[in-house]
User: Fold this.
Amino acid sequence: MTDPQGPPRRASCGVPPPLVAAWSGGGKRRRRPARLLLRAAAAAAAWCGGNAVWPAAASNLNAWLDEQLPALCSLYQQLHAEPELSGQEVRTSQRLAEELRGLGFEVTSGVGGHGVVGVLANGAGPALLLRADMDALPVAEATGLPYASQVRVRDARGARVGVMHACGHDLHMTSLIGALRYLSGRRSAWSGSLIAVCQPAEETGAGARAMLDDGLFRRFGRPDYCLALHAAADKPAGTIAYRTGYAMANVDSVDIVLHGRGGHGAYPHATIDPIVMAARLVLDLQTIVSREINPIAPSVITVGAIHGGAKHNVINDDCSLQLTVRSYAPEVRRQLLEAIRRKALAAAESSGADEPTIEISEGTPALFNDAGLADRVLPALREALGPQRVFETEPSMGGEDFGRLGLAGPPILMLGLGVVAPERLHAYAAAKQVPPSLHSPQFYPDYQPSIHGGVTALAAASLELLRP
Assistant:
């Protein structure tokens, strides 16, 4: 398959042209309501229907990106082709540390694992933290792209797995480096300190906590603002979507093991069947959200896995369930977890079984975007990208550990970066399909306009927040 991006060039709407081809991957088709497809199509139209000429204040960045985009695209392809799993980001962290040193940053590696922190002091002023995550997923890439990942490694279980940047972290890193290249070369345009954070292990929810525990703010200074990008696979490439307040969810994992009494399937009266208990519990768990949680408080309980039994005529001793639990508000989070525990205990007691084993592991806290920071940054983004390409979006029940930085004190803002070309969105809408989602082996961004938008957003926001 040839590279769909082609050579970098300018389009009449002021950004590099996106891929002009419909997706032809073999993924399973999923249907969405027509209104969502129409919304995606409208957003795609807005992408090229917005302000065609950037204001004069953005012309310098625009011209610089015209010249530097090929090098940034090359960096992106290298990062994409050489992904590393969470906690194993050895080469990636080394590459980013070298980039930061070359730009004049004071660099510290090994922060919270393979985390990298670079600090560039440039006179008096506020400190701005820009964060990009580095880790990839245990996914075997199926895009067929010429720069597709061919990496295979052993995971923590010893299984051989493919590795892929299926969540856009390669775009986040490239956008960060692009913005820092621009800002480091124009120090007269801003005053203060830039803190570049290259974070490991976002996908496991462990990286931000590890860096904070290793003294991220204590050792390198508490920032006045924190910014980050997150790829959006349902938004037009190069656009910016924002949400103030709760934008991403609390994520908790619950493991339940129901303990019965095994025996022969022909003599169930002599057993306590844990599979029957599990079946009852799965249904009972659904009533927590539907009957116990306030209907206007977003929450999700999903039973993602059940494991029990080994043969047709054998009733096993145990049956295990794995749950993911999502929420926004802390009080709703507590209510959900307490109710799950109560339902599991009740299922066992009603069957005369021993008390179940219940383990709750915290994933990530809810991400709360600061409204004041958004109000400060958004006008600069609209000026740089055009008002049609900066828009509000709905909150997500996905998780992101960038929220931990906000809980540690400073205001944070995570911006959604659209990564799918308008032509592809139109094709999906016409076929009543949706693009491959993040974490799909068939997901790929249209990287030229995506990088262009990501670099522009981070650079424009930085210049606004670090005005001399």
